[in-house]
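#structure-requests
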Amino acid sequence: MIEEGEQAPDFRLPAVADGERREVGLADHLEENVVVLGFYPGDFNPACDGQSTGLDDLDLFTMQKDVAVLGISGDSVHSHRAFAAEYDLHVPLLSDVDGAVAEAYGVGADDDGYLTRRAVVVVDPEGVVRYAWVADTLGDLPDVDRVRAAVEGVGGG
């Protein structure tokens, strides 16, 4: 797993944002924003209970003008579009189908067979990782208060 203080690897991936397909990259959001990367195992995975996706809490950060949230999994853009519509998600959902970004951040495939492990990485406007968390098990969710503290520590919100 990438560690706090390291430079965040840049990337550019196909995504669904506000129902539209587009290309989204880390650098697109860095100049004026704190970026929260939410890696997750996949759309409609067993951790989704019909009411919560695990990305819901991170979606709340989008209400802050200087914070960008990006969800990343190995699912296709088509799957992301259905997932975002089903759960009314407003964060861009990026499609890392070959797992290269997950691998670069150290949250790639594990013994459970998931391409992407659940993880949260907070990146400051200079591209430095300020917070990094990865789940130990499929059902683990990040501590939103720790994510909020990291974002506020950079100046977001």
